[in-house]
């Protein structure tokens, strides 16, 4: 069966949220292919995923924790010939599932090649403080450097809500295994001269203690990746 849209969701140790997130997506979008890759979770994430009985869910499990980038690439391998547009989101509850509908509506109305959801387009100052001002500044630094190096005009390069037409998958030549996948996707689209559109999305930030996976160390790796672009 060929789908117009697919949603790829990497998951690592999200037992408290993954059932709610994925089950809601499957129910809300019954005509969309949902591909979830459990990245070697050591908690009950995979057991929670197995409880979901939706026919549009394709579930995969990595035997070890290889990283978000690896899982995204594995997801792309399983959807590129099955859908026209791929959407990425996370298994936590930081992104509002309703915002996926808003992103899809842009593809229905316009012939866009890539659309990202931006946490910062309409973010209030109090919300910046709530997410941690140091995290906000780090995101801004990486996004501005990405724009400078890749000739884009994004406000949120690191967003978890990304999408593009699957006909570009092979041309992107993605290789990153971990969080460097975020700037690498932007690089791949930019190398194809694709203008990335943005739509504002809501954001419910978590702390490391609450389960957030990306860290200051990952930010440094993304910075080094962008600096070393050729």
What this model shows, in words?
It is a single chain. This protein has 230 residues and is α/β, with parallel strands linked by helices. The chain has a single domain (3-227), classed as Spore Coat Polysaccharide Biosynthesis Protein SpsA, Chain A (Alpha-Beta Complex), CATH 3.90.550.10. Helix content is 40%, strand content 18%. The mean pLDDT is 90.
CATH homologous group name = Spore Coat Polysaccharide Biosynthesis Protein SpsA, Chain A
The description of the largest β-sheet is: 7 strands, mixed
The chain-level structural class is alpha/beta
N-to-C order of helices and strands: EHEHEHEHEHHEHHEH
Please name the CATH architecture.
Alpha-Beta Complex
Topology (elements, then pairings):
Elements: E1 3-11, H1 18-28, E2 33-39, H2 45-50, E3 57-62, H3 68-77, E4 83-88, H4 98-109, E5 114-118, H5 125-131, H6 133-150, E6 162-165, H7 169-172, H8 181-191, E7 197-200, H9 216-227
Parallel strand pairs: 1-2, 1-4, 2-3, 5-7
Antiparallel strand pairs: 4-6, 5-6
């Amino acid at each position: 069966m060929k789908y117009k849209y697919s949603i790829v969701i990497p998951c690592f140790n999200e037992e408290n949220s993954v059932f709610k997130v994925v089950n809601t997506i499957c129910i809300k979008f019954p005509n969309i292919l949902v591909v979830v890759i459990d990245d070697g979770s050591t908690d009950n994430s995979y057991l929670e995923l197995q409880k979901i009985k939706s026919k549009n869910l394709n579930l995969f499990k990595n035997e070890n924790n290889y990283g978000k980038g690896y899982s995204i690439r594995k997801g792309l391998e399983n959807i590129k010939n099955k859908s026209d547009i791929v959407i990425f989101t996370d298994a936590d509850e930081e992104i509002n599932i309703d915002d996926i509908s808003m992103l899809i509506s842009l593809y229905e109305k316009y012939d866009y090649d890539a659309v990202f959801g931006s946490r910062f387009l309409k973010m209030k100052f109090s919300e910046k403080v709530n997410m941690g001002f140091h995290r906000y500044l780090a995101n801004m630094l990486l996004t501005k450097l990405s724009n400078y190096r890749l000739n884009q005009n994004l406000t949120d390069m690191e967003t978890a809500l990304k999408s593009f037409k699957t006909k570009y998958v092979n041309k992107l030549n993605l290789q990153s295994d971990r969080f460097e996948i975020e700037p690498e996707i932007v690089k791949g689209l930019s190398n194809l001269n694709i203008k990335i559109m943005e739509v504002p999305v809501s954001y419910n930030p978590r702390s490391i203690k609450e389960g957030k996976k990306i860290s200051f160390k990952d930010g440094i790796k993304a910075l080094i990746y962008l600096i070393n672009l050729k």
